[in-house]
Amino acid sequence: MIIKIKKSILTVIFRCHSSFIVISAIVHLSWCQLSDLSFCPNEGRVAAAAGVDVSDRMKSRIPVVLLACGSFNPITNMHLRLFEVARDHLHQTGRYQVIGGIISPVNDNYRKKGLVAARHRVAMARLALQTSDWIRVDSWESEQTQWMETIKVLRHHHSELLRSLPRMEDPDQGSASSPASAAVPELKLLCGADFLKTFQIPNLWKDTHIQEIVEKFGLVCVTRAGHDPKGYVSDSPILQRYQDKIHLAREPVQNEISATYVRKRYLLQRGAKVCITRMDIYHQG
Fold this sequence. Notes:
The chain has 12 helices and 8 strands. By secondary structure, the chain is of the alpha/beta class. It has a domain at 62-165 and 183-268: Rossmann fold. Helix 1 (2-32) crosses helix 2 and helix 5 runs antiparallel to helix 12. The longest helix has 31 residues, at 2-32. The protein starts with a helix and ends in a 6-residue tail after the last helix. Pathway: Cofactor biosynthesis; NAD(+) biosynthesis; deamido-NAD(+) from nicotinate D-ribonucleotide: step 1/1; Cofactor biosynthesis; NAD(+) biosynthesis; NAD(+) from nicotinamide D-ribonucleotide: step 1/1. It catalyses: beta-nicotinamide D-ribonucleotide + ATP + H(+) = diphosphate + NAD(+); nicotinate beta-D-ribonucleotide + ATP + H(+) = deamido-NAD(+) + diphosphate. Pfam families: CTP_transf_like.
């Protein structure tokens, strides 16, 4: 009799424990929002315990590639942080899956004071991104014979994305046709709030370019201290019209550090720091 009672108690405890595992797993997956399980520890075990098919959920998301244009003079950990914050934000929406990031250093003809040669900036970026499995540097913009407007850089990379996609087989013609629409990733411009503010500067941007950037591609803006990105959007008729294409991602760690301070203190990826030191790229005046 005592043995039977003990068995019954053990059965109840086991069932309760099993239910707790499943409930905990579901809560855990909800916390991670099933967005990118690379952020979730023991994701395979948790998903299996919850009986959730994550692959179907991920396939339903819109693939996104983030493009950041700028001087990258030099590339810093803060630049890479922008990508991470933007990716987290898009994943948390439940709609997007970031599949890649592109860093495009500006052309030498940008003529910014203190801008070192593009070959050095590209080399530093490549070294800094050696440990990244999803962000890469692209030298196309820096290799052009003249300074390139942002919209032209976006158009180029969008064309490259379409070209890299597998072609659909036309059953009637037996030849390749257009890329599968379901597989076409969205290219979004990644920027900081200070970049967004430049849209307000008279004669700096063409209205047609601003409209094409936000309407066709979209923006992911990582907010910084001292800026009011929502205000920048509401003050611009074009941005306000396409505000659903503008994602404002909040940077949890706020800081205001100048590029000069970064170069002096070497708040850089190790590879970029070594490149700067060996080649004496930034001379101390």
